[in-house]
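Re: [ENG-882] Designed sequences occasionally contain unexpected residues at chain ends

Forwarding the minimal case from QA. Structure tokens:
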């Protein structure tokens, strides 16, 4: 029999690995779109639509996924989600048209949409409150590892094999992981959450408690514009490095490992900072992250040296991660246990509309300005400034009250 501590470590480790692979799947299209656009004869508008199909499904499924996790627990829902997104990734490698690829990416997005809420619920089911921020930071750091590995793994698979083989390999790994995840997670009745569950409330009361608070909408707005910034960069920087800066696919992939590699450390550091110095003060870390990101994205866009541009990008990535982890930790610490999945799903659902809009927005800007990336980067910087402005209006929250209690 595994000890409780050892089981918790195994669970968070498995969730971490799943999210690494999930981000490989999520970002693969950003690199694969280059050879895909050549094979299918796609313009930048259509490329943006294919990339955005993932985020449309991702956004639409968030709320349903969060509700399902609250209703059925993280074990069954999370393992099923990993299987769904992995099958969507496999399908992405066998399609024969742009429409088919968009549909496959939508399936992948539907599966991955459940993971943010499911991961938060899994942490609250298995970790004490004093450990949640650090546990969440470990899980969130999987995104940075996925980006770092993806930059080289995906570009290498595409360069030496094909974009179709790349999707098939990633999807097959995910299917195996979904089975392993179900095996290591405990039934809900054996979790800490089941032991510490408070009084039951009706579904109507739970949803009303989320909707009537202005902080819910402010958090969603902050994450909406953060996603425009983040995915605007992730979706179009590969094309920028190759088409404007003249980098090869492999060279671009090697350089692109640097920002997320530093992001891995930043997630872990931010988890510690949130527990140690920013407890109930998450808005200040969000403001700092947005302001610094805006400055360094501007510097990146105007840098003449490629190494210097990637250095600036690395700094902006670190501080964008501070915003992301602050958003999710705020939800976990200020919402009641029985609503964490739904709250995360609701906020992330609205916020992911930014992820959906971002590739199309930047694609449209590029088309309208004759591929002027300078103007596109200016739009991204403006969104970072908006994040800072919204976060500054967050109300102060003191003590251990939940969002519902402070409304």
């Amino acid at each position: 029999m595994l000890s409780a501590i050892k089981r918790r470590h195994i669970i968070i480790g498995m969730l971490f690995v799943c999210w690494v692979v999930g981000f490989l799947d999520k970002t693969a299209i950003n690199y694969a779109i280059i050879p895909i656009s050549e094979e299918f004869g796609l313009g930048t508008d259509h490329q943006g639509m294919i990339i955005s199909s993932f985020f449309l499904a991702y956004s639409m499924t968030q709320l349903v996924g969060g509700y399902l996790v609250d209703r059925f627990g993280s074990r069954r829902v999370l393992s099923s989600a990993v299987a769904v997104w992995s099958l969507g990734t496999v399908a992405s490698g066998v399609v024969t048209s742009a429409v088919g690829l968009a549909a496959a990416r939508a399936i992948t997005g539907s599966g991955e949409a459940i993971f943010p809420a499911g991961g938060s619920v899994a942490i609250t089911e298995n970790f004490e409150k004093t450990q949640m921020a650090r546990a969440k930071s470990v899980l969130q750091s999987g995104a940075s590892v996925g980006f770092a590995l993806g930059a080289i793994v995906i570009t290498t698979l595409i360069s030496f094999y094909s974009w179709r083989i790349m999707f098939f390999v990633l999807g097959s790994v995910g299917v195996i992981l979904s089975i392993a995840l179900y095996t290591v997670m405990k039934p809900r009745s054996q979790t800490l959450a089941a032991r510490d569950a408070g009084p039951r409330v009706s579904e109507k009361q739970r949803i009303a408690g989320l909707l009537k608070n202005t902080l819910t909408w402010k958090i969603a707005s902050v994450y909406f514009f953060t996603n425009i910034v983040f995915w605007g960069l992730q979706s179009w920087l590969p094309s920028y490095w190759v088409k404007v800066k003249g980098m090869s696919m492999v060279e671009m992939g090697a350089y692109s490992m640097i920002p997320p590699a530093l992001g891995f450390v930043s997630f872990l550091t931010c988890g510690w900072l949130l527990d140690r110095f920013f407890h109930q003060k998450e808005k200040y870390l969000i403001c700092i992250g947005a302001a610094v990101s805006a400055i360094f994205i501007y510097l990146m866009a105007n840098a003449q040296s490629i190494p210097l541009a990637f250095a600036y990008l690395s700094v902006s990535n670190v501080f964008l991660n501070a915003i992301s982890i602050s958003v999710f930790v705020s939800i976990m610490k200020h919402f009641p246990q029985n609503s964490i999945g739904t709250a995360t799903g609701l906020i992330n659902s609205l916020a992911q509309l930014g992820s959906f809009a971002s590739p199309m927005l930047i694609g449209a800007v590029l088309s309208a300005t004759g591929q002027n990336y300078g103007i596109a980067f200016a739009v991204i910087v403006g969104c970072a400034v908006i994040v800072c402005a919204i976060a500054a209006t967050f109300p102060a929250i003191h003590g251990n009250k939940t969002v519902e209690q402070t409304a």
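QA comment: On inspection the terminal residues look reasonable. The radius of gyration is 20 Å. Proposing we downgrade this to a documentation issue.
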